[in-house]
């Protein structure tokens, strides 16, 4: 309640959710009644599972990130979401908890590791490895060899890169719930799997996925950016000895959209890689790209 009123009776722009301040990467170990994460509690009502949580919040708060998508686009969005959640997820889990367990344990140690001591963290990591292997076997994907699992991962990542293309977000110039799903998974390859095959792929051949992750990170988590960022560029010609840790340049966050298809000498306006014809930054997810089309038609 707020000022004696029920929160659901307040206009949306007056609604604010506050979170308890917890250490970075804190995990208290509490799961939902189904033994799953994520889960939320809203006005004493508990909901678990990403899809059900999104549906619940859309109904309660009257917001919908997919309002600009038509039926066909919504169908594509759901299909890609399931590919990421039910297939790509397991290949990432294998990379993190099976193939690179020691690096994962070191990363947890550097981040504080929540309430776990060093010994308990070692035990939890190895227990998690066993759980992941068992669940992957039940899923079916764990019955393949290491090379085959990474081959499936690469196919999923190439599919995402192809679908994104040179657009700002997966489904176009506007953010959708699909972007939340895709970013949540690709972020692991970007920042939690150093030196692994998915990291080399996303920061090398599939650089549009790296730029996509950086756009979202800088837009919604500006405090997450560090000067000692180890994000690197890697071209097809790069050799192992020539790879250097260089921050992504600002112009790399520029993304073309379908409204930028027609280019030519007849364009009388000028723009930098990170702005549109009005001078607005393409870094802003609220830029109305339809204005550009209208501008072109009126020329």
Automatic annotation (TrEMBL):
| Family annotation (SUPFAM superfamilies) | GST C-terminal domain-like
Q: Name the Pfam families for this protein.
A: GST_C_6, GST_N_4
Q: Where is the Thioredoxin-like fold domain?
A: 30-101
Start and end residues of each stretch annotated as Disordered: 262-299
A cellular component term (GO) from this record?
cytoplasm
Q: Out of the domains of life, which is the source?
A: Eukaryota
Domain Metaxin glutathione S-transferase: where?
154-216
Record's family? Answer: Belongs to the FAX family.
What name is this protein filed under?
Failed axon connections homolog, metaxin like GST domain containing
User: Which species does this protein come from?
Assistant: Aotus nancymaae
Please state the gene responsible for encoding this protein: FAXC
């Amino acid at each position: 309640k707020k000022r004696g009123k029920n929160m659901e009776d307040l206009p949306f722009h007056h609604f604010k959710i506050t979170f308890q301040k917890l250490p970075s990467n804190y995990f208290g170990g509490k799961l939902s009644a189904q033994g799953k994460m994520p889960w939320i509690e809203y006005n004493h009502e508990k909901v678990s599972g990403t899809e059900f949580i999104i549906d619940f919040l859309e109904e309660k708060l009257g917001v919908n990130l997919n309002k600009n998508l038509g039926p066909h686009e919504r169908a594509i969005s759901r299909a890609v979401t399931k590919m990421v959640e039910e297939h790509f997820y397991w290949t990432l889990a294998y990379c993190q908890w099976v193939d690179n367990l020691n690096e994962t344990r070191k990363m947890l140690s550097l981040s504080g590791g929540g309430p776990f001591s060093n010994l308990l963290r070692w035990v939890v990591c190895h227990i998690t490895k066993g759980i992941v292997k068992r669940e992957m076997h039940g899923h079916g994907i764990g019955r393949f060899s290491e090379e085959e699992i990474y081959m499936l991962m690469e196919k999923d990542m190439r599919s995402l890169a192809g679908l994104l293309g040179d657009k700002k977000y997966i489904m176009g110039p506007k953010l959708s719930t699909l972007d939340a799903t895709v970013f949540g998974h690709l972020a692991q390859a970007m920042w939690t799997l150093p030196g692994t095959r998915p990291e080399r792929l996303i920061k090398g051949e599939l650089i549009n996925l790296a730029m996509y992750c950086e756009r979202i990170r800088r837009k919604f988590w500006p405090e997450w950016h560090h000067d000692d960022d180890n994000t690197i560029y890697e071209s097809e010609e790069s050799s192992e000895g020539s790879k250097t840790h260089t921050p992504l340049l600002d112009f790399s966050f520029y993304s073309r959209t379908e409204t930028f298809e027609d280019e030519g000498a007849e364009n009388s306006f000028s723009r930098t890689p990170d702005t549109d014809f009005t001078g607005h930054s393409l870094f802003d997810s609220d830029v109305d790209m339809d204005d550009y089309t209208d501008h072109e038609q009126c020329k």
